[in-house]
Amino acid sequence: xxxxxxxxxxxxxxxxxxxxxxxxxxxxxxxxxxxxxxxxxxxxxxxxxxxxxxxxxxxxxxxxxxxxxxxxxxxxxxxxxxxxxxxxxxxxxxxxxxxxxxxxxxxxxxxxxxxxxxxxxxxxxxxxxxxxxxxxxxxxxxxxxxxxxxxxxxxxxxxxxxxxxxxxxxxxxxxxxxxxxxxxxxxxxxxxxxxxxxxxxxxxxxxxxxxxxxxxxxxxxxxxxxxxxxxxxxxxxxxxxxxxxxxxxxxxxxxxxxxxxxxxxxxxxxxxxxxxxxxxxxxxxxxxxxxxxxxxxxxxxxxxxxxxxxxxxxxxxxxxxxxxxxxxxxxxxxxxxxxx
Length: 340
Description:
Blueprint: H1 6-20, H2 29-32, H3 36-44, H4 49-61, H5 64-71, H6 75-89, H7 105-130, E1 136-140, H8 142-147, H9 149-159, E2 165-169, H10 173-182, E3 187-190, E4 198-212, H11 213-216, H12 223-226, E5 231-234, H13 239-251, E6 257-261, H14 264-272, E7 278-281, E8 292-295, E9 301-309, H15 314-323, H16 326-334
Parallel strand pairs: 1-2, 1-3, 5-6
Antiparallel strand pairs: 3-9, 4-7, 4-8, 4-9
Helix pairs in contact: 1-3, 1-7, 4-5, 4-6, 4-7, 5-6
């Protein structure tokens, strides 16, 4: 995002004011010989934003004294500043006999545009004060956000090389990839096949069959045995649903679904209540109820975990370097979060 200096913003706004005032009320003759942008540049060398502020506030508050009190100046100082503004514009803003209480025709037209200048300028300055270029927006799945991101963020905070971290979750890979393509996130973290950016693989996620602990010792991991159990599945937009259909089809068995659930967290809750078994990322079981266990199907199911980037800004480069660091990857792998 490009931020212009306040002087440039003010000059552009002043050009808007002068070009919006009716032709017969525009700047005085000494400016009319130049083009409108040049008029704005000439005028802006003499006109200040504070003069606009004084004028707009005096009109809005209906009193020069009230406006002066707001800015902490004397009424005479404010009147002098507005007089200098009138001289620069070449027109009176207030009727001479109204003691700066009644606007002239030019003053009324000018006030409408000057109000926009003041509001826009203050808005631009507030944006400049609050805009944070150091925010790193990370898009990922709900499971990775809950299980993998906490230790990663802990390392990021420890290095003190990152500002604010914004973690956003997406229901499926399509939504996550689209967010990266549209620029609403800086990086996409997860098992994505195709994205509009570059992939930095840092590990492999194992998919396992979650079951109740009292069922674990009776399972051998074969699809022929697993197919005889009731299953908890996912909606058609889930990548895991596609993987389950592919693996069971390859084994020549048909999966019977007792219920379909919207996400991994709901699936695990249903498994815990004995509704059936389900395929989940192994990391999702870390820290779960002791009533939950898992078995790896035969053959083992894994998929790549990668950090996907589109634009390599400095904070994105630092994040890529951190997440692909072998020491950190070994620690995360030892914790059971993924394989390397």
